[in-house]
């Protein structure tokens, strides 16, 4: 581990249980790495979970863009890096990259976090000592958004129930688990959609709106979109009342 004000390197070895039948790492495992190394970096700089708890603050992931550039098989050791790319009033963006020891880029991710007043359940300003410690200036970045039209008639529909193992210490579905839900929906739809979870390269843009909780029954809708180059698929996750929880776009290439 090499802690720096502007970044940190940490090795992650791809484990057997993190891979699918094709022997490649599951997409959700890569997001778990990005989440983990962000906290390792924060702790190394003096901002551990106790620091946040004392101040009634916490970070929540609100958007992620993940690109998988090349296959990442079982047993690979990733040199994963993270750095704070910028701050806004209540936002922070982290840039993470995964490389082989020879420097070959295998993945990158931009993760947008929002500072939250956990007592009141509303956004809170980023304390000034955090940007100062990480040597990161305010802005400029536009927080990630995933704009989607209404799901068209004939969209693939997939029912999902939140499992206990999907929950994190905050008692809601962890951000990485939504990628599992997304890929379940793609596989269930079959055809071209079912090939996307293994496409290489591929890119996922995901926006988190409202957290799902223990035992929630969810409804995913999936449909092709042609307004991107390359074209891809749109995905929306909602509860049975239609309240939107998350949305995503997935493309190959």
Please describe what this structure looks like.
The chain has helices at 27-44, 49-55, 129-134, 175-189, 191-195; strands at residues 2-3, 8-13, 57-68, 77-87, 91-99, 105-117, 122-123, 156-161, 202-208, 217-225, 232-238, 244-252. It is an alpha+beta fold and 253 residues long. The protein has 2 domains: 2-134, Roll (Thiol Ester Dehydrase, Chain A); 156-252, Hotdog Thioesterase (Thiol Ester Dehydrase, Chain A, Roll), CATH 3.10.129. The longest helix is centred in the first third of the chain and has 18 residues, at 27-44. The protein starts with a strand and ends with a strand. The mean pLDDT is 92.
List the main descriptive attributes of the protein structure presented here.
253 residues; alpha+beta; Thiol Ester Dehydrase, Chain A; twelve-stranded antiparallel sheet; 20% helix; 37% strand
- List the secondary-structure elements in sequence, H or E: EEHHEEEEEHEHHEEEE
Strand composition percent = 35-45%
Largest sheet: 12 strands, antiparallel
Can you identify the CATH class of the largest domain?
Alpha Beta
Q: Looking at this structure, what is the CATH superfamily of the largest domain?
A: Hotdog Thioesterase
Q: Tally the helices: what do you get?
A: 5
Low-confidence stretches: none
Number of strands: 12
Helix proportion range? 10-25%
* Rounded radius of gyration (Å): 18 Å
How far the N terminus sits from the C terminus, by CA atoms, comes to: 32 Å
Mean pLDDT: 92
CATH topology title of the largest domain = Thiol Ester Dehydrase, Chain A
Structural class based on helices, strands and sheet pairing: alpha+beta
